[in-house]
Amino acid sequence: MFFCLLCHGINPPGRDLCPECLRQLPWNRFHCERCAEPWDDPFTGLCQHCVTEEPYFDLCYSPLRYAFPVDQLILQGKQPNRGELLLALGRLLGHCILRDRIPLPDLILPVPLHPDKQQTRGFNQAGILARLVARRLRRPLRYDVITKVRERGPQKALSRAERQQNLQRAFRINRTVLRALPQLPRHVVLVDDVMTTGSTLNQLARQLRSSGVERVDGWAVARAARQSR
Ligand SMILES: [Zn+2]
Ligand SMILES: [Zn+2]
Asked: Which of these, 105, 112, 133, 190, could form a disulfide with 148 (CB 3.0-4.6 Å)?
């Protein structure tokens, strides 16, 4: 017998969520065309951030908003004994990418966790999501292209410039691995569970582009609205 992960009602076999729970999820229907920042009106175009400062990434795709109950699924999915939630989210992301005909890349990379954090938690949720998506879309995946080199610490007390500088030092692109690939990827996608401000994605896109990648997109299960609005 199969049960819906949200309402625990009886479900058709092989489904994580029942049709009603699926329908009621906070879908990111209206959003910035570039960074997926959610908004309430059926308006197409770019948000103020993307207009003022053009991002280094080409497209961010996030089918859901970071709101109830998706926020709970993501938070609980980080618990070691709730792996089925993370698997359900990964399957959902893969399904939505195909449904919405999102351009597929040459290479998929998960946004890495700091090694200490990964050791404590035992896994990187972005890595699990990326693996599920890569398998579904039959695209290559690498875990060793980006390394997180230092913990960024509390960012709130820092100025914007300081935050930017910290972020620049936070990730390292392993160019040797990139160049050793059968072909230098032209189009890369970064996978994460949640995208909040987009600054991590933007920074990684900038570094990947300076390593010769032409196009960098970001895929996240859920997109949070920026705090400063
Ligand atoms: Zn349900
Ligand atoms: Zn935007």
From this structure: 112
